[in-house]
Amino acid sequence: MAMSSLPTGAGPGPGTGTGTGNGNGTDAGPDAVDDSRASAERRRRGRGRGRGASGVAGWPFVVPFLVFFVLFLVVPIGFGLWMSFTDSSLTGHGDTAFAGLGNYTEAFTDSEVWQSLGNTAWFTVLSSVPLVLFALVMALLVHTGLPGQWVWRLSFFAPYLLPVAVVTQVWNLLYQPESGMFNTVLKAVGIDGIGWLVEERYAMWSVAILTLWWTVGFNFLLYLAALQSVPDHLYEAAALDGAGAWRRLWSITLPQLRRTTGLIAVLQVLASLKVFDQIYLLTKGGPAGSTRPILEYIYDTGFTNYRLGYASAVSYVFFAIVLVLSLAQLKLFSRRED
Length: 338
Description:
This protein is mainly alpha-helical. The chain contains 13 helices and no strands. It starts with 29 loop residues before the first helix and ends with a helix.
């Protein structure tokens, strides 16, 4: 009887080896490993060249923006900062005279600067709070399903599209002491007319009312978009639990609008701090400087009194104040969200 036997020292059979398997039970030799490593290295280099090519290809789209950004933002900011340390004048005299911190020292001791800053702060309070609250109420009314919604949306937003010159001309006619509509209505109900633009205690209120009518449409659209993004299933679940309309408003709608409210508040405060156009066209800062904001004071100092260096210093002081207030607002609203 013939018997087969394995020779002494024979290696392990297929599928039982300890080498690197290739899926067919055979061992992958050193050449195969080297080939896989070379392929991986080639792919890595190809990806690197692709990223480099895409980065170079994107520069033509970025360079025009960078050029305009540097020419029209960085350079003016740097030039204005340098000018604030000089006695520069619009007439060209004293352009090379270095004043150091003299302009800033004068700005902090100038009573007119503080008065105009106070007027700006007062206008910000008068306008910002109603512009947030009225916009929210208007958006809630439209979102509840008033008939003819497109008419309400158009009427609420249309004033925001008007130029400031048109708005001030219309409201100047409404504010006229004798022939204006407001005083005509007051006299019809037995109330004496009000000097809307000529009395100090009413002038800033008049500007704030105009601003409310003119710009509330923008905030209204932001709130309306936020309301439309609130999930319906939240209201459905609350209704199943027996929550009424007011409960759903306080427990669902307003919390869902917290981020939008923070955004609108920040934008509105910044816009109110930068008020200039409507006040300059409506009252020119009067009566007796009671409505003159800080930007109008900067304008008068630089382009009426020709003191560009001092006007630049005041503008950078105001810029620092706006920056601090903006950072404080952002931090406050971020804490509330957390």
